[in-house]
Structure formats: structure tokens, C-alpha cells
Amino acid sequence: MATIGVQMMMLKSAVEEAGPFEILRRLKKDVGFRAVEVSQIPMTAENVDQMVRAREEFGIDFGALSAAVQAPEGAPNDSLTSDFDKIVADAKALGAERLRIGMMPFDAMASHEQLLDFCRQADEAAVRLAEHGLTLHYHNHHIEFAKLDGELILDIIRDAAPNMRLEIDVHWVQRGGKDPVRTLQRYAGLVDLVHLKDYRIGHLDPSAFEALRAGDLQAFMQAFTGVVQFAEVGEGTLEWREVIDTAIEAGAKYLFIEQDNQYGRDPFDCLATSRKNLVALGYENLL
């Protein structure tokens, strides 16, 4: 059975203040989530020890951890190139069987050749991880739905890194101009991880109309085209029953709630809203 959990990127500021053990306690006891995906949380020895403790005391299920092929200096996620043994050890300690790459390196977006170089490195890492019983997954944004020589970048990644699986983020699929349901169907059998993130059309800020009255049409149009927002599950426009049911049919094992921007709301409140809406839709058994 699939499990719905939380992408901890939403809680990175809270983790910085209180540490992962306390945040995972609140997530389980106060909000009602037991599974997480770890991203943008520094995997220091202290943080990993606290996560292990949360697993032991609260039954936290670490569905996936994050890594980069090559992490820039100061990046929160470890590097599969320079930190491979540590990544494997952390995964084993936390009982995590999956690792995910949150985004291709920025320079891989510059040319077809650099994209293929990233794919080669990722595929080699996936083969090495498989020797330790771990799978590697690629998380999409909207950029992967651009085309190079008539082919979707996501399909180029799939073909050039056949040992790497997918993590489909349905908000970014929608923002990339594709249908989340059809995309999940298209990659069925390759999708173990899914991000549940709603797609909301927000309201124009009053400052946009002030700019219009001042004759600044460019500022108004920037606001007009920038109303797409991230949203709590059930607070946007995605058809969640169809999305979730299709994700499960496609083979998803974990579905992680993520909201990149909470627009001033407490992230725990955002997660509580998403959970309430998911329960109302009939998915309490997956929480």
C-alpha cells in the first residue's frame, strides 16, 4: 500500500531552530504524519542521530533521502560523487531504500551535451547504489518539459540514464504545460515517488493596480503573469482523486506533500490543511 507523507524541505527553517527530532515529533504527534522525505536538511552526524532516534521512538518512516550528483559548496544535500559511502551509511541507518536527485545541475540546462554528461554520472551512481540495495530517482520541475531536438528533456533523461527512476512532481508537471494524470500514466512502472503539491491561481496584489494607475503597464503585466502559486493539497485546481489514484496505479510507493512557498502561513498549518483535505477525499488510510 502507498503511503502519504511530508517533504521536509517545508520544515527546514523549523529544523534549524529546534532540530529534526523535535520537528519529527511534532509532525507525528501533532499533525498526524509518519513518513517523510528528507531534503535541504544538512545530514550532519547530529541531525542523522536525531532522525534515527525519531525513527526508533516515533516510528518515522524515511521514504527517501536526497543527494546531488555533484553538490556545490555549501549545498545542504550530500554529493554522490564525493560523499557516496556516507550517503549509503545514512540511508541504511534510517531504513531508507530510495535516494532522489531534486534537480539537475544548473549547467546541465545549458546544452544537450552537458545534459547528457549529467545523465551519464547519474546513471553510474544509480548502478553503484543498486549494489547496496538502493534506488535512485530523478525529481522533475517544469524545465524538463521543454524540448531539445523535438524530444522532451525528461525523455532524454530517461533514455540516457536508464537505471534511474522517477519522482513526479504533479505541480511542476502542470506548470510545464502537461497533464499530471497523463504524465503519471505515461511513466507508469518507473514512478515510485510522487510529490503532492497543488497548483493555485492567486489574486492580483493591490500593488499591481497601483502600478496600472501610475501608468506602469509592465509592472502590472508582471503581476498578471505571476499569479501561479504553490498551494496546500485541495486548495488549488488539481483533481486530486484522479491524480492520487493514478499515481498509485502507476506504482507509487510514497506520495509526499510539498509546498515550496507557504506565503506567510506556518508550514505546520499548511500541512494540517492538506491532511484535512486528504482525509475528506477518503485517503486517511494512506496517512
Describe the structure.
The chain has 287 residues and is α/β, with parallel strands linked by helices. It has two domains: 3-197 and 233-286, Divalent-metal-dependent TIM barrel enzymes (TIM Barrel, Alpha-Beta Barrel); 203-229, no CATH class. The protein has helices spanning 12-18, 20-31, 45-58, 84-94, 112-130, 153-160, 170-175, 180-186, 206-213, 217-225, 240-249, 267-280, and strands spanning 3-7, 35-37, 61-68, 78-79, 98-101, 135-139, 147-148, 151-152, 165-169, 191-196, 198-201, 228-231, 254-257. The strands form three sheets. The chain has an eight-stranded parallel β-barrel with strand order 1-2-3-5-6-9-10-13. The longest helix has 19 residues, at 112-130. It is globular, with a radius of gyration of 19 Å. The termini are close together. The mean pLDDT is 97.
Strand content: 15-25%
Which sequence of strands runs across the widest sheet? 1-2-3-5-6-9-10-13
* Total strand segments: 13
Total of DSSP H or I helical runs spanning 4+ residues: 12
- Architecture per CATH nomenclature, i.e. the level-2 architecture of the largest domain: Alpha-Beta Barrel
The chain-level structural class is alpha/beta
Fraction of residues in helix: 40-55%
Shape: globular
- CATH homologous superfamily of the largest domain? Divalent-metal-dependent TIM barrel enzymes
Summarize model confidence as the mean pLDDT: 97
CATH topology of the largest domain: TIM Barrel
Element order: H for helix, E for strand: EHHEHEEHEHEEEHEHHEEHHEHEH
CATH class of the largest domain: Alpha Beta
Can you tell me the number of structural domains? 2
